[in-house]
Amino acid sequence: MLYKFFMSVYKETLLLKRDFGGLVILFVMPLILIITITLIQDGTYKSMSDVKIPILLVDNDNDTISKTVRQNLNESGSFEVLTQLNGKDITEEVAQEAVFKGKYQLAIIIPEKLSSDLQLKVNQNVDRIVSSFGLTDSISSEVENQKIEPKEIKLYFDPATQLSFKNGVKNAIDRMISQIETSSIYTTFQEQLGEGDEPVFEQESFISFKEIVPTIDNKEILPNSVQHNVPAWTLFAIFFIVVPLSINIVKEKSQGTLVRLITNPVPYAVVIAGKTATYLVICMIQFYLMVTVGIYLFPHIGLPALDVSGKLFLMSIVAIFAGLAAVGFGILLGTLAKTQEQSAPFGATSVVILAAMGGVWIPVFAMPKVMQFIAHISPMNWGLNAFYDVLLRNGGVLEILPEISLLLLFFIITVTIAIVYDKKKRAV
Amino acid sequence: MKKPIIHIEQLFKKYKDADDFSINNLNLVIEEKEIFGLLGPNGAGKTTLLSILCGLIKPTSGKFSINELSYQKNATEIKKLMGVVPQEYALYPTLTARENLLYFGSMYGLTGKELKSKVEQSLDHLGLLKFADKKVETFSGGMKRRVNLIAGILHNPLILFLDEPTVGVDVQSKNVIIDYLKELNSKGTTIIYTSHHLVEAQDFCTQIAIIDRGKIFAQGTPKQLIAETEKASNLEDVFISLTGKELRDVI
Questions:
Q1: Contact A168, A76 (CB under 8 A)
Q2: CATH number of the domain bearing residue B160
Q3: Are the C-beta atoms of A54 and A104 separated by less than 8 Å?
Q4: Which domain holds residue A274?
Q5: Does any CB of chain A come closer than 8 Å to the CB of residue B69?
Q6: What is the ipTM, given to two decimal places?
Q7: Amino acid A80: pLDDT
Q8: How many CA atoms lie within 13 A of A189 on its CB side?
């Protein structure tokens, strides 16, 4: 029986070796994918100092606030602030048209008299407070009675702009305006109450954030795009084995070789085991290739190196079980499909869906409630969580045990369904 | 007195959603060392019967035994005794002839030197040795048929099932295949064979059964069948007389 198993593995290896296109799909495409995606996504994990997004600023204020906004935007390093197009000052209409046509991602319109009206409003409020304490009797009735309309800073976004970018920009500008308002209030109080140049109020933030990250040997583990992307896209590539494997099985049916195998004195389980072993080895080669690229190639193309120190063994275990789950899915799909036209597109699409459900693109916590529930039944989510447990959460065998058990269970269930379905089909 | 090697009793097969039975209360005994021709028009039930005997599909009811072993209880043992040569080229096109045969031979339990020498001898016998290391996808139809045949007989089966083994091949390849099958039979292999080539069957088979609508209409040696049929001078006359002249288009 062992000899039959080895011959099955040998046969599958030869079939793969002779299929150049299949080999390209299995090894080269995932490498291209991981390099491309990591390069693109790298910007979301580090400051975008290298890539500046040009934005339009229409400054109708021409005073302290607009200067502060412009200065902050420039200092953020993320934006290139444009106030002129073709040598002319940008108007709101021009900015709106340019943004809505997709030429620019964002236009900020600062209204007229924003700085002066804000100062006036703050003065009114501060004067009222100060006088209510009986500290002054010199409130200018002209200032007090002046009606000041609320101001709006308009933002125009390219309709194709992603929601996450829009929210990020809106939050940043909101924070900037709040700081300016607060600073203005403090300054006005200082002017009303202060007797000299000595600052009465400390304008530095009292509350600040400190992110506490996991540490190993007192060294902080800071996640970067590579630590996130390599496991995520490695899983994606591993699951893409579903496509060639299902095609392999469909071909055996259409070529008649499956008929010959069924009439041979060899249990179907041995045939399946031969395929499982071969494709599992392919999955592991894919995995180690990706890791190698992450460790050695990424630093040469401006990306952080993948740090697997002390984690490679556990990562390999996760890869083995993820590979098993992928192979099981491929065997099931190949058994159910009648033609390559069914198995190839369905296999590819279902892997993309599983990846989306599993949190490869969008984190599970950011999904709607229903999708969060569905995500937990995606084998790619189990694999991804196990990889993150090892790479980012400093987890051990116990931490990954639930996920790898689920992956193994998925393999057993899919292969069992495939075998039972095959038997049932022949009983019709 | 020859020993019965296949014994079929009250066999029925009705496919899911089909209106009629493909095999309808079929009873048949095939004796050892025969070259048994199973002849019938399209949709008569030949391939269904062969598929049931090979274990590819299950009968709706009835029973059969091969070499006195009940298939229901001894499927693996029976598979070791039989060889199957399907109608399609059941080979891996991107593997060479030798690689295909080494693989399928190993699935029959052959190993090591025995396997290699069987493959070598068979390829030589059927004129394919010099093409042994060429991919099957580059072979002509006749060459593929010969490799297809070898893949089913490497383990010297007691019973060989052949589904139209000479369809689509040239005369030369056909003669080589038929001669080789006769040689196998002379060494003790019982051959169960289906074909639409009635002239070939008349010359090749020692026993013939005419099957139609899932039932055996006549059984005997070619000579007996011709003699027993009025105005018949060959097997084709017998065939037409028993199955009629109307077209048998099946979907």
A1: no
A2: 3.40.50.300
A3: yes
A4: 2-45+227-425
A5: no
A6: 0.82
A7: 85
A8: 12
For A14, the closest of B99, B151, B152 (CB atoms) is: B99
Name the residue of chain A whose CA is nearest to B99's CA: A11
- Beta-carbon separation of A427 and B79 below 8 A: no
Q: Which position has the token pair 């900020």?
A: A108
The answer to whether residue B251 scores a pLDDT higher than 70 is no
Pair A104, A236 in one domain: no
For B74, which residue in chain A has the nearest alpha carbon?
Answer: A265
On whether both A261 and A386 belong to a single domain, the answer is yes
Please report, in angstroms and rounded to a whole number, the separation of the first and last CA atoms in chain B.
42
Q: Which residues of chain A have pLDDT under 70?
A: 42-51, 135-145, 194-205, 208-225, 366, 426-428
Q: What pLDDT score was predicted for residue A47?
A: 47
Please state the domain count of chain A: 2
Residues 1-40 of A with CB under 8 A from B: 3-4, 7-8, 10-11, 14-15, 18-19
Do A136 and A279 belong together in one domain? no
Instruction: Give the residue ranges of DSSP H helices in A207-339.
Output: 225-239, 242-255, 257-263, 268-292, 312-336
- Residues from chain A that touch B151, judged by Cβ atoms under 8 A, are 260
CB contact under 8 A, A3 and B92: no
Query: Quick check: A11 and B91 CB within 8 A?
Result: no
A141 and A36, same structural domain? no
CB-based burial, A373-393: b 16+ in 10 Å, e otherwise:
eebeebbbbbbbbbbbbbbbe
Over residues B98-150, the pLDDT tens digits come to 999 999 999 888 888 999 999 999 999 888 889 989 999 999 888 898 899 89
CA distances (Å), origin A349, targets A21, A24, A229, A236: 19, 19, 20, 12
Give tens-digit pLDDT for A186-217.
888 777 776 556 666 666 667 766 666 666 66
What residues of chain B lie within 8 A of the CB of A19, using their CB?
A: 94
Q: Which of B56, B82, B111 sits opposite A259 (nearest CB)?
A: B56
Q: What is the pLDDT of residue A412?
A: 95
A257 with B90: Cβ contact below 8 A: yes
- The Cα B17–Cα B19 span in angstroms is 7
Distance CA A66, CA A113 (A): 10
Minimum CA–CA partner of B88 in chain A: A256
Query: Would you state the structure tokens that stand for residue B80, as one six-digit string?
Result: 């070791």
CA–CA dist A302, A307 (Å, integer): 15
pTM of this prediction exceeds 0.80: no
Distance from CA of A262 to the nearest CA of B (A): 7
